[in-house]
From TrEMBL, chain A:
Occurrences of domain KaiB (ranges): 9-90
Alphabetical list of CDD domains matching this protein: KaiB_like
Residues in coiled coil: none
Protein name per its UniProtKB record: Circadian clock protein KaiB
Organism: Pedobacter hartonius
GO biological process, one term: rhythmic process
Domain of life: Bacteria
Pfam families: KaiB
From TrEMBL, chain B:
Domain KaiC residue range list: 18-257, 258-490
SMART domains: AAA
Compositionally biased tracts (Polar residues): 8-23, 573-584
EC number(s) on file: 2.7.11.1
Domain of life of the organism encoding this protein: Bacteria
GO MF annotation terms: ATP binding; hydrolase activity; protein serine/threonine kinase activity
Protein name: non-specific serine/threonine protein kinase
Organism of derivation: Pedobacter hartonius
Coiled coil: 521-548
Keyword Phosphoprotein: yes
Catalytic class of the enzyme: transferase
Region annotation (Disordered) ranges: 1-25, 562-584
Length: 94, 584
């Protein structure tokens, strides 16, 4: 389960509860399932409002998996780990 | 919070709600000024009824006419598609975007690409919208169609809560917003957006009856404002949307005593001298081939000759046909077409619904600003709607035209008497003047008789005139009322001929008598002359006798005196007297 590094962008809105939870959750997931094989970028949309249009963002927080393809989007506070993993394309073998 | 806000705003400027004009033809009249300023308005309707077009027109007209920048957030169409759509209406969206008057933001949501992993909100949308609004200072916002969110995201409770927050946020931003929504089965919108947008709801509809489609608009609700409540037909054409308000419900139109000639001098005389009143409505009805179109065309012709504009709606013949036919009765109307005084609009009544005809006519009249409008014939409109619908439509047209002080002439075909009643009944109470042309069949001929059924406010003739169409034009002549009834056509001509012969015979008789009298006078005069000469000769004779008598007496006297002297014989006396006598 290695090959390309995961390139992830997380879009948040300041320090809202959802954003804070999302950061914590995604960090946990990445550390657990993709140790050392990911690059996580956290962007505060409040700071760069024009990014919302460019990245086609409606709901927040949004996590965009830019690589490896295909591109996937996940919205929410990333509390549903199974769904996040499915979105990232990680298959858990237990 | 909302209540408090509205209370304070009401206190600030008493009763009236401020409005944002749409610039869309007719819509501002129905809503008495436009959409509620600073509040969201819902436009809903089924697919293809013009929601997107109406909302984009609101934005574009806002930018062009009212200098108000606008944001169009599209959930369905991409900016390029939108630009193409409005280009068909003659608006350059790209240029407006370059001028920073319009901003189009296309929102792409695809459910298959999105995984929902827990709690979220729509802050992304808020930020996007907020950024778009602030970047151009927008006053107008359109969200088309926000319900698409429901197809992209599944958590309805979040979406509903967020939508409620969105509309409140738009209000707080002070922008006038249009939200479009697809029509649901039992609700106005599929997702019940009307719950959230409660200030103004406009419903668009697209109805098909008798295979003819009509677009209709209705203001379902407009909080804090008066508005028209009817269904108004609207038209989408190359100039955008035009809504037709059912015009004035009052009858307080200024009237005119000015008149306008009918183009037929003898008809003017029949109407009391000068023709129709300006701004009145005239109905010309008659059976087939009685010359209704000729009357209408001659009215148009004379109007144009006066240098006034005339708009001719033909529902039966093409303009070329009318021009050719009118040339045969001595009217050259093509020159008016060239000078731009006359305009033809020929269309089959079945081209679109009745209401659409009305809207289309409305638009053309507003643009062309004619003094005279002709509808030839209105009968054909019956094929599109029922009699009562046609009547309702014509009432509105007449209302509108009277407001604009335009004289209108309708022609109506009457097939037979029963239908005639029906057709005419529809409109006869409405019009100010009604000319009826009747066929008069007599003596193996068909002739046209015309009479003025009514002419409000004019001392019009109550007589039937014969209506004749010649190569020199139209004319009305008196018919003859003989013992056999009304005489027209050749019977009338024969009657005229008979009268003329009578006059000639009479004239001859008179002149013969005159000659006899003069002859008698001459005879008498010659007799008098001869008597005169006779008298003169008698007089002369008598005078001669008288002179002789006097001479004789004189001579006798002298001889007597001489004789007397001789008898006395005195010498002295003789010597004394002789020179005297010698002298004598």
């Amino acid at each position: 389960m290695e090959t390309q590094a995961y390139h992830l962008s997380l879009f948040i809105t300041g320090a809202s509860p959802n954003s804070v939870r999302a950061i914590n959750n995604i960090k946990c997931i990445c550390e657990k399932y993709l140790p050392g094989n990911y690059e996580l970028e956290i962007i505060d949309v409040y700071q760069i409002p024009e990014i919302a249009q460019i990245e086609q963002i409606i709901a927040l927080p949004t996590l965009i998996k830019k690589g490896p393809s295909p591109e996937r989007r996940m919205v929410g506070d990333m509390s549903d780990t199974a769904k996040v993993l499915r979105g990232l394309g990680i298959v858990i073998k237990d | 919070m909302t209540k408090k806000r509205s209370e304070t705003s009401q206190a600030a400027h008493f009763s009236t709600l401020q409005k944002s004009p749409t610039g869309i033809n007719g819509l501002d009249e129905i809503t008495k000024g436009g959409l509620p300023l600073g509040r969201p308005t819902l436009i809903c309707g089924s697919a293809g009824c013009g929601k997107t077009l109406m909302s984009i027109e609101y934005i574009v007209r806002g930018a062009l006419q009212f200098n108000e920048p606008g944001v169009f957030m599209a959930f369905e169409e991409k900016p390029e598609e939108l630009a193409l759509n409005v280009a068909s209406l003659g608006f350059d969206l790209d240029q407006l975007m370059a001028d920073k008057m319009v901003k189009v933001d296309y929102v792409h949501i695809e459910r298959s690409e999105i995984e929902e992993t827990g709690e979220y909100d729509l802050d992304g949308l808020f930020i996007r919208l907020g950024y778009a609004i602030d970047s151009i200072g927008a006053k107008r916002v359109v969200l088309d169609t926000i319900e698409n969110l429901f197809s992209g995201l599944t958590n309805e409770s979040i979406l509903r809560a967020e939508l409620r927050r969105l509309f409140q946020w738009l209000k707080d931003k002070g922008v006038t917003a249009i939200i479009t929504g697809e029509r649901g089965d039992s609700t106005l919108t599929r997702q019940g957006l009307e719950e959230y947008v409660s200030d103004c709801v406009i419903l668009l509809d697209h109805r098909i009856s008798n295979q003819i489609s009509t677009r209709l608009l209705r203001v379902v609700k407009y909080r804090g404002s008066m508005h028209g409540t009817n269904e108004y037909p609207f038209l989408i054409d190359d100039e955008g949307i035009s809504v037709l308000p059912v015009t004035s419900l009052q009858l307080n139109i200024d009237v005119s005593t000015e008149t306008i000639s009918s183009g037929i001098p003898s008809l003017d005389r029949m109407l009391g001298g000068d023709g129709f009143f300006k701004g009145s409505s005239v109905l010309v009805s008659g059976t087939a081939g009685t010359g209704k179109t000729s009357i209408a065309a001659s009215f148009a012709h004379s109007t144009c000759l006066d240098g006034k504009k005339c708009l001719y709606f033909a529902f039966e013949e093409s303009p070329m046909q009318i021009l050719r036919n009118m040339l045969s009765v001595g009217m050259d109307m093509s020159k008016h077409l060239k000078s731009g005084l006359l305009e033809f609009h020929a269309s089959r009544p079945t081209m679109y619904g009745l209401e659409m005809h009305l809207v289309a006519m409305h638009k053309k009249i507003k643009r062309f600003k004619p003094e005279v409008v002709i509808l030839d014939p209105i009968t054909n409109l019956i094929t599109v709607g029922s009699v009562s619908e046609v009547k309702a439509m014509l009432i509105r047209l007449v209302d509108f035209l009277q407001n604009e002080r335009i004289t209108v002439m309708f022609t109506a075909l009457a097939l037979n008497n029963t239908l005639n009643e029906q057709t005419d009944e529809g409109i006869s109470s409405l019009v100010d003047a009604w000319l009826l042309i009747r066929d008069i069949e007599f003596n193996g001929e068909r002739n046209r008789g015309m009479y003025v059924m009514k002419s409000r406010g004019m001392g019009h003739s109550n007589q039937v005139r014969e209506f004749i169409i010649t190569s020199k034009g139209l004319d009305l002549v008196d018919v003859y009322l003989g013992p056999d009834g009304v005489l027209t056509g050749s019977a009338r001509q024969a009657h005229i001929l008979r009268e003329q012969t009578g006059i000639a015979l009479h004239g001859q008789a008179v002149s013969r008598k005159d000659r006899e009298i003069s002859r008698k006078r001459k005879l008498l005069e010659s007799k008098i002359a001869s008597l005169q000469t006779e008298f003169e000769s008698v007089e002369e004779e008598l005078n001669k006798v008288y002179l002789e008598e006097e001479l004789k007496n004189q001579i006798l006297e002298t001889t007597r005196l001489e004789m007397l002297e001789k008898r006395r014989g005195v010498e002295g006396n003789n010597k004394q007297k002789s020179p005297g006598s010698k002298k004598k």
